[in-house]
Amino acid sequence: MLEKEIESYLVAQVKVKGGRAYKFTSPAHRGVSDRIVLLPNGVVWFVELKTETGRLSPLQDAFRREINGMGGNYICLYGKKDVEQWLRSI
Asked: Which of 1, 2, 16, 41 is deepest in the core (most CB within 10 A)?
């Protein structure tokens, strides 16, 4: 499955849960996550999506550490199965 297909699946399934998954780009800060997911009750997640064999770039890993270091919710999901598992856990 391509990354864009995984991303479309995430967007649709988050909407079913009553949330929104906004595309996130920041021209001045490379490495930001693909999506900002807003869930009911004000829960916010920064979500990076990869294929099952994908890897975080060094800039993406730095962004992950930055968000986690500030107590934020960050997750990198590898493929549709990871998306499904994460959605069941939230």
From this structure: 1
The tens place of each residue's pLDDT in the chain, 90 residues long, gives 899 999 999 999 999 999 999 998 898 899 999 999 999 999 999 999 999 999 999 999 999 999 999 999 999 999 999 999 999 999
Q: What's the token pair of residue 13?
A: 């399934």
12: helix, strand or coil: helix
Q: How many CA atoms lie within 13 A of 86 on its CB side?
A: 23
Answer yes or no: CATH 3.40.1350.10 is held by domain 3-89. Answer: yes
Does pTM surpass 0.90? Answer: yes
